[in-house]
Specification:
Keywords: ATP-binding, Kinase, Magnesium, Metal-binding, Nucleotide-binding, Transferase. There is one protein chain. It is built from 28 helices and 28 strands. It has an 8-stranded mixed β-sheet with strand order 14-24-23-16-17-18-19-15. A 5-stranded antiparallel β-sheet has the order 1-2-7-5-6. A 5-stranded antiparallel β-sheet has the order 10-9-8-11-12. The protein has 701 residues and is of the alpha+beta class. Helix 23 crosses helix 24 and helix 24 packs parallel to helix 28. Strand 16, helix 17 and strand 17 form a beta-alpha-beta unit. It folds into 4 domains: 185 residues, Acyl-CoA Binding Protein; 121 residues, ATP-grasp fold, B domain (D-amino Acid Aminotransferase, Chain A, domain 1, 2-Layer Sandwich); 142 residues, Phosphohistidine domain (Glucose Oxidase, domain 1); 148 residues, Phosphoenolpyruvate-binding domains (TIM Barrel, Alpha-Beta Barrel), CATH 3.20.20. The longest helix is centred in the last third of the chain and has 26 residues. It is elongated and about 105 Å long.
Length: 701
């Protein structure tokens, strides 16, 4: 916007009725949320009005504006706020105690980063506005509840105050009142919470800003700064997200799900993100705000129950999800709020999904005429197929499996995971370095747990629903995850988990104990359960047939045995690109023949070659039969020979080899030492092995 003296054409984009237009698909500039707000407005959905500060603003804020909003841009922000006031009507005004307008300030990068960026809700609350909102809505509890939420969120996100400081004060008030659930706090209780939250600011030598425009400026800056925060940087590193300008900031009129029993909030996938069925998969809470659902603080209700609680809202919502799927041609992840019986669509994006769901959704969307086969292929990522080719638990109906079930939670992300209990990110990372699989167990995860979640085999939480932070991130990374497992109690300080089983028994498991997670059934199991290999059938078979029709390259396998070759052919390989013959002879029943070939006398070497010739001939016959005329590339014996010999310190194996060769253990040890090569890469391998041990190559040929 040259007239403003800013190095960008349009730093702010408006959305809402009458403002969706040319930039609706400019995701790189508006971010995922901003682009979707504009697009949802353009297709006629009820979207609360707002505006988007572009990703270019973030880039300039972080690099060239000294992390300050320039006066000319701030003027545009003020004008954009006025457009929100006009669109909302009813004479609402930002900062006016009699008819207050409250705002949300949310991040939104071009690529979704769930839970990694910052959000501030109820912005515009202060002492006077709280009193005015209570009178306006005739619902003082709603006003004070909104205020205490804002104080905590603003303090934590914008001013870096520890969330625990607010949670401790909240817990103290509930304890003093004998209350367990937040929803049971009275107006007087909430006023006391607000007083104590304001005191938290003072305890950290800070003052809560009563000026709502200062709040807005500080919040926008905090969201921009969050782009370079450690959580967001780590997530981009793990997900290999590069070349983005930054995050956009979406400022939007607040609509409230916590205005009583005719209000609520929810998150919903238009299809099941675990298995792909074409049915709504989501959760909602009555008398709550959006953060309550995704943060896992309260355990929500399944979306199907909304049809009973608010049938008209449910019907409208279902119709909206169908419009969204047809418009975007993909399964959507939708956030919504109901304010006093009126539905507002807050956000939509392509939903993250597991491998099984990705394939089924792609196949179904083609059958429904929403996608072509080639478009459907591009909806499925390589890692989705990788998940489907991983093992699953076998014999889930067996008595042994069923007797190992300790507890059940919510099936947040499918798959099978086996590992040692770990209660901290640090322990998971340490185990990973030592080659030990871990199950990360938490009361509830937060974005700070991203490293532990990534390095773990699976995730188990005591609280949270199927759209909580843990669930969304786990699904995206293909980690099995069970959330809302209320039967477990996590004691991180002492490194233990207490499980109350279905029959009332109390079991205690320590860090390092093995457990298994069945993400498909949400079962937590004792010990290391057996897993079974996958199979290409059903939707996956259909999908891969489409891929075969579209591809223009062949796919060859690494396969070293007839069984491997048969499996490769079953999975669609067009031949074997590398058959490593050393893998054929390291099997227990053959390794002794190789050792005899290396260490034995002339007669023993001839016997070993004859034995290996017979077994190798069977190997290649089996491989060629499995490949059925397709090409096979064989690498003749290649590793340094000393790699086939036993370690000198293993007296038992040395003694066994010595007995077979008719030598003493000391003689075998001397030969093993003599065969060792300092630099195997330049030693007796490949063609040099063929020169010094031609009989091996002759036998293999």
């Amino acid at each position: 916007m040259q007239a403003l003296g800013l190095e960008m054409d349009v730093p702010i984009s408006l959305f809402g009725k009458g403002h969706a237009g040319a930039q609706a698909n400019a995701k790189a500039l508006l971010g995922g949320k901003g682009a979707n707000m504009a697009e949802m407005s353009s297709i006629g959905l009820s979207v609360p009005p707002g505006f988007t500060l572009t990703t270019e603003c973030c880039q300039s804020f972080c690099n060239g504006w000294n992390q300050q909003l320039p006066p000319l841009l701030w003027d545009q922000v003020q004008k954009a706020v006025q457009t929100i006031e006009d669109a909302m009507g009813d004479h609402v005004k930002f900062g006016d105690a009699s008819r207050p307008l409250l705002l949300s300030v949310r991040s939104g990068a071009a690529i979704s980063m769930p839970g990694m960026m910052d959000t501030v809700l109820n912005l515009g609350m202060n002492d006077e506005v709280c009193q005015g909102l209570a009178k306006q809505t005739n619902n003082p509890r709603f006003a004070w509840d909104s205020y205490r939420r804002f104080l905590e969120m603003f303090g934590n996100v914008v001013l870096d105050l520890p969330r625990a400081a607010f949670e401790d004060e909240m817990d103290d008030v509930k304890y003093e009142r004998g209350i367990y659930d937040d929803a049971n706090l009275t107006v007087d209780d909430l006023q006391e919470v607000v007083r104590r939250f304001q005191a938290v600011y003072a305890q950290h030598d800070l003052e809560f800003p009563q000026n709502v425009h200062d709040q807005l400026s500080l919040a926008i800056g905090a969201v921009f700064r969050g782009w370079m925060g450690p959580r967001a940087v780590k997530y981009r590193e793990v997900e290999n997200i590069r070349n983005l300008l930054g995050t956009a900031v979406n400022v939007q009129a607040m609509v409230f799900g916590n205005m009583g029993d005719t209000s609520g909030t929810g998150v919903c996938f238009t299809r099941d993100p675990n298995h792909g069925e074409a049915s709504l998969f989501g959760e909602f809470l009555i008398n709550a705000q959006g953060e309550d659902v995704v943060a896992g603080i309260r355990t929500p209700k399944p979306i199907a129950e909304l049809q009973t609680v608010m049938p008209e809202v449910y019907d409208e919502f279902k119709a909206n999800t169908e419009i969204l799927e047809k418009h975007y041609g993909d399964m959507q992840d939708v956030e919504f709020t109901i304010q006093e019986g009126k539905l507002f669509m807050l956000q939509t994006r392509n939903g993250k999904r597991g491998g099984e769901a990705a394939v089924k959704i792609a196949v179904d969307l083609v059958k429904e005429g929403l996608l072509t086969k080639r478009q459907a292929i591009m909806k499925v990522l390589p890692e989705h197929l990788d998940q489907l080719l991983h093992p699953r638990f076998s014999d889930v109906d067996s008595a042994d499996y069923q007797s190992s079930v300790l507890a059940k939670g919510l099936p947040a992300s499918p798959g099978a995971a086996v590992g040692q209990l770990a209660f901290t990110n640090e322990k998971v990372v340490e185990n990973k370095k030592n080659g030990i699989p871990s199950i990360l167990v938490r009361d509830e995860t937060s974005p700070d747990d991203v490293e532990g979640m990534y390095e773990s085999e699976g995730i188990l939480t005591a609280r949270g629903g199927m759209t909580s932070h843990a669930a969304v991130v786990a699904r995206g990374w293909g980690r099995p995850c069970i959330c809302g497992c209320t039967a477990i109690s996590v004691d991180e300080a002492n490194g233990q988990m207490t499980v109350t089983t279905a029959d009332g028994e109390t079991r205690v498991f320590k860090e390092g104990d093995y457990i298994s997670l069945n993400g498909n059934t949400a079962e937590v199991l004792e010990g290391q359960q057996l897993v079974a290999p996958p199979a290409i059938t059903g939707d996956l078979k259909t999908f891969m047939e489409w891929v075969d029709e579209a591809r223009d390259i062949d796919v060859l396998a690494n396969a070293d045995t007839p069984a491997d070759a048969k499996e490769a052919r079953k999975n669609g390989a067009n031949g074997i690109g590398l058959c490593r013959s050393e893998h054929m002879v390291i099997q227990p029943e053959r390794i002794n023949q190789v050792r005899k070939l290396i260490l034995g006398n002339e007669k023993q070497q001839e016997e070993a070659l004859a034995s290996l010739l017979e077994s190798q001939r069977g190997d290649y016959e089996g491989i060629f039969e499995a490949m059925d005329g397709l090409p096979v590339t064989v690498r003749l014996l290649d590793p340094p020979l000393h790699e086939f010999l036993p370690p000198i310190e293993d007296e038992e194996i040395i003694a066994s080899v010595a007995k077979d060769l008719g030598l003493s253990s000391d003689e075998v040890k001397e030969q093993v030492k003599a065969a060792e090569e300092v630099n195997p890469m330049l030693g007796l391998r490949g063609c040099r092995l063929g020169i010094t041990k031609p009989a091996i190559i002759e036998m293999q040929t």
